[in-house]
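Progress against Task 2.4 (sequence-to-structure conversion) is shown through the following example record, which the project officer requested during the mid-term review.
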Amino acid sequence: MPFPIGRQLAFLLARRRSWERRGPRSVSASQQRAAGSNASRGQRPPACPLLSAGRPGSRLRLRHSPASAVTCASLSTSSASSMASKEFNPTFPTTDWSVAKKHLKELDHTERRSYYKAERFVILDEIQTWKDFSTEEKLKQPVTHYKKNDVLNEKVSLLQEDITKLEIDAIVNAANSSLMGGGGVDGCIHMAAGPLLSKECSTLGGCSPGDAKITSGYCLPAKYVIHTVGPIVQGKERLPEKVLQSCYVTSLKLASDNNLRTIAFPCVSTGIYGYPNGQAAETVLKTVRQYLEEHRNSFDRIIFCVFLKIDYMLYKEKMPFYFPFDAVSPGSPKEKSKSADKDEKQTENTLKLGNGQGAK
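Structure tokens generated for the chain above:
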């Protein structure tokens, strides 16, 4: 037979007075550890034990104890702060790029691999140095005024590969002045990096020809992207060699200023941008050789990462002149490799092929 209503109310009132006499329960060390452990796994922390209900189904109330309130608040704050750095996805355009950039900066290559969009990537140890490459390929050493330097020959590489696959410190993007992504290398880098790259680029205020700016690599295997704007060549105008040189020197200085030891360059300004492939290669190799002679301790590796076969063959032919692998008798400083007179025709062939550089 059920108790009368009056007796039920008296029972509940007595129970409530008993709880109030007992006072609030303290948070045990094991409960605090459990809260931190769940937060580190990205889970919600357990309900604070200082929130009591009395009966199942009744509304939760915080007991009026200043010490208890501080303890519960500190648990909630620590849980939120430990989760804040993990609650983002660099593939989502709604993610705060600055939060993602800060988090990724603290990770090593192994930890960052879970964010790569690329199904495969190329590590530095898989890329031959120019010294090993020239030996394996049994290249013929042309006459040159440059001296053989094995130290420099171990700091440069020639690679025909998709630049978005390289797991190194920085890759260079042949960008347009807005830095917002276009075609060719530029578009492929933006696609492989994810939407946060464009969001960060939008804060940089564009970039002038010959200049360079740096961003995070986000979902790329490379930690950083250095964006440089090369010159555009139209018709038979005088080639803007100094602007092209500036693209490479400024990019190298920017990498060095950020303590980046490995960097890869695409073919800046060639293809649809009109700079003759052969003459661009001459300018690039001369510029990098001079820079390394003055700053040989600034880099572990500078990679000429080309995508088209025409550029690969040009660099393979011209690199022995600027980075000789064998001792030869001195030649004229103005001497160039025999392919220089073919540059115009090679550029026309490249334009027919289209600017196919980028991800496969």
